[in-house]
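User: Sequence in, structure out. Go.
Assistant: Echoing your sequence, followed by the structure tokens.
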Amino acid sequence: MTHSTLSAALTRAELAMIRSVEAFSRWSMFLNKATSEAALAHQDVWILHSIRMRGGAQNLSELLMFLNRNDVSSIQYSLKKLERFGLVDRVVGNSKREAGYALTQAGEETTSAYAELRSQLLVALVAGQTEIEDALTNAARTMERMTGIYDQATQAVLNRNILSPKEDANDDQIAH
């Protein structure tokens, strides 16, 4: 694959990821509306279900790592919102840092209703597609690999100023 065809394939994949995230955001919000009275944004829904998937109380650091997020204040806002709706409880550990969040009974019921309707609608729809299970497994593997590559590329951008500040300064002097 040439550099230009690789670049085009990467661009197409990036646009597909953007569209998929947007479609998944809408899907998760509408599915939540159909199964819960809690008016949640897609991020809130994702955090609620992440707590369920991980099992047991999850602290903020675990949720950030699991979701590959670094926007602490947004996650904290969602957790407070989920608490207000009675879907999670803050569970205090030995220290403030060990405090976590666990599903309440209402949170268990909400996530169970969501999972049931998801199975009836989405899983049933996907099951009608031929060879979809292997394709989904390969897509997940590729997206996980790309997550690591994007994280590595982000570090490269951040390190540019550390690794070559003198080169940048020399370039500025030459330009003047």
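User: And one key feature?
Assistant: Residues 31 and 117 are 8 Å apart (CA to CA).
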